[in-house]
Amino acid sequence: MTLLALKGVESGYGPMQVLWGIDLAVNAGETVILLGANSAGKTTLLRTIIGLLPCTGGTITFDGEPVGALPPDQRIRRGIAFMSELGVFPGLTIEENIRLGGYFLSAAEVRRRSARLYDLFPALAGKRRDLASSLSGGQRKMLGIAKVLVSEPKLLLMDEPSSGLAPVFVKQVVDVLKTAITGGMTLLIAEQNVAFLPLADRGYLIDGGRVRLSGTRAELEASDAVHEAYFGL
Ligand code: ATP
């Protein structure tokens, strides 16, 4: 089943158009990766899907309904979550950050879901009342993921989850995502780090705000264009 479908999507920053007619689909249960060099338009695409940037052309359909004109909070309520590179509020505690991620849920429901999340992120469990600013870079990223997972989104958009992380933490993030994917999570990830490629079922190579090619993970791995943009070869 197609969960997210983009047809001819255009977007940008005021008069500066960045995306030019993007066609893209994510099926329920799939992990799809967005590849592309710096400034290709990956972040712009994710921000347009969640509604932080206006969709100035084309259509965005989620779960069978057009969402391209809805404000971000209504897209979040329909089940789309966005994890930006920044992710967490350093001046709030771990618990408060997670509660914010589930702001539209009852306190009891947040507690129930938090208990499951602390099982998945044991490093956070003992630090519930500590400020997020006291966490290491890797732990902050884990908190950023916990904060979006608490809403149990139908689709999780992730912008460069590896950014600023040492390789050992990148591996931890990949392992946590693997667990979430096994649990049925649908993911659209913009990533430059090759460690994330094995998670993907399919992917798109974005170049100059356009889809240059799309295919299965194996097709992308075999593509010269992907090697050029992704592996820097
Ligand atoms: P990166 O890996 O560097 O984040 P990206 O593929 O995510 O790359 P985008 O951040 O989407 O690329 O940038 C696409 C284009 O939009 C670039 O030309 C960039 O300069 C421009 N751009 C990004 N953010 C803004 C902004 N806030 N205002 C104006 N232009 C922007």
Automatic annotation (TrEMBL):
CDD domains associated with the record: ABC_TM1139_LivF_branched
Residue span, ABC transporter domain: 4-233
Gene3D superfamilies the record matches: P-loop containing nucleotide triphosphate hydrolases
Keyword annotations from UniProtKB, A to Z: Amino-acid transport, ATP-binding, Nucleotide-binding, Transport
GO terms, molecular function: ATP binding; ATP hydrolysis activity; branched-chain amino acid transmembrane transporter activity
Biological process, per Gene Ontology: L-amino acid transport
Top-rank lineage group of the source organism: Bacteria
SUPFAM superfamilies on file: P-loop containing nucleoside triphosphate hydrolases
One Pfam family linked to the record: ABC_tran
Family label: Belongs to the ABC transporter superfamily.
Protein name: Amino acid/amide ABC transporter ATP-binding protein 2, HAAT family
